[in-house]
Design a protein that fits this description.
The protein is α/β, with parallel strands linked by helices. The protein folds into two domains: 230 residues, Type I PLP-dependent aspartate aminotransferase-like (Major domain) (Aspartate Aminotransferase, domain 2, 3-Layer(aba) Sandwich); 115 residues, Aspartate Aminotransferase, domain 1 (Alpha-Beta Complex). It has eleven helices and 13 strands. The strands form three sheets. A seven-stranded mixed β-sheet has the order 1-9-8-5-4-2-3, sandwiched between helices. α2 packs parallel to α8.
């Protein structure tokens, strides 16, 4: 019998238990110090340690972090950034924001991640950076992208918005690129209501990044003595968001582990089901499974089937080159078309119980 609406959502907001969060939150709200301050710096330190990243800056959103990454990479008007169309739109609207041109490379049709061969074929004298998205939490082929970036003198930027806690070839996601960004927007693995983190490989760029985060001003220098040399932005994180983040870090490990266990369960259970195949996971990858990616012969049918059983399934994203604002940059991407046609995402987060995942598999096998 069909349900009236999805009872297993595709994404869900994760908040720490009330008894953990509310006392900390209340103490900050009434402390008289609610903007950027000590809690933000503590959150940065804890995040850095917990996720194996050297130099991190907490900001107001993942998009703000990406904007700073492009600026720090020297991306300017007229430059090209090789990127993917298979992502949430801010990855690429941010390229337009700095006046550069997005150059859409094709993807690997088994993962939806950028194809290194396609990327290399599009490098020109105007290319300044490669922006790699770990789509749905499945790591892209970072060793090949690092080698390409080094060979051609390009900045490598990892968009890790979907990939908190993932790893590639034994290295933490976000530690291979020159810059990496994480998102704490509402429905990501971990939220601070909204917020983001910028990871910076070269420690010498950190003070510049801090100034860009705060109007171009140096924090801790009296306003009457400070000198702005470069235009910056109001991209700071607040103590209020940071105290949510600090509490989240106390509880996030088992939630990330549950995403991973559910993803691995589906990888095994759906391998030999007629008409569908799990997105491929190479031997170097440890995915974060923000969404579980299934490739099917008829994605619309699978979506209808699961929805009728109260399980939300969706393609979730629209390839960016289909938007009017990106039409001038659209080029043939046959592998992306193949991937998107077959794509369906199914729930695999911390809220999916053993019984839920067994039911999803049994419906897919039956249907």
């Amino acid at each position: 019998m069909s349900n009236s609406g999805p009872s297993i959502p595709l994404v869900k907001v994760a908040m720490p238990p009330r008894e953990m969060l509310m006392p900390s939150l209340e103490s900050v709200l009434y402390s008289g110090m609610i903007a950027e301050g000590e809690f933000v710096y503590r959150f940065e330190e804890r995040f850095s340690q917990q996720f194996g990243l050297a130099n991190v800056l907490a900001v107001s959103s993942g998009t703000a972090a990406l904007h700073l990454a492009f600026l720090l990479s020297g991306v300017k008007a007229g430059n090209e950034v090789i990127t993917t169309s298979m992502t949430a739109e801010p990855t690429n609207t941010t390229i337009l924001q700095v006046g550069a041109n997005p150059v859409f490379a094709d993807v690997d049709a088994t993962t939806g991640n950028l194809s290194p061969d396609s990327v290399e074929s599009l490098i020109t004298k105007d290319t300044k950076a490669i922006c790699v998205v770990h789509y749905a939490g499945y790591p892209a082929r970072l060793n090949e992208f690092r080698e390409l970036a080094d060979r051609y003198g390009l900045s490598l930027i990892e968009d890790c918005a979907h990939a908190l806690g993932a790893a590639y070839d034994g290295q933490a996601i976000g530690s291979v690129g020159d810059y990496a960004i994480f998102s704490f927007q509402a429905i990501k693995h971990m939220t601070t209501v909204d917020g983001g983190m910028l990871a910076i490989k070269n420690p010498e760029r950190v003070s510049e990044a801090r100034r860009l985060r705060w109007f171009g001003l140096s924090k801790g220098v009296p306003r009457t003595e400070v000198d702005i040399t470069t235009v910056g932005f109001k991209y700071n994180m607040t103590n209020v968001a940071a105290v949510i983040g600090l509490t989240q870090l106390d509880v996030i490990a088992p939630l990330l582990q549950r995403h991973y266990e559910n993803g691995r369960y589906f990888d095994k259970a759906l391998t030999n089901v007629a008409g569908m195949v799990p997105a491929s996971v190479d031997s170097l990858s440890k995915p974060a499974y923000w969404l579980y990616t299934l490739l099917t012969d008829d994605s619309d049918d699978v979506e209808r089937l699961l929805t009728s059983e109260g399980i939300m399934a969706s393609k979730l994203h629209r390839p960016n080159h289909l938007h009017s604002v990106f039409k001038p940059f659209a080029t043939p991407m046959p592998e992306l078309e193949k991937f998107y046609d077959r794509l369906i995402h199914i729930p695999c987060g911390w809220w999916v119980s053993d019984e839920d995942r067994e039911r999803i598999v049994s419906i897919l096998k039956r249907g």
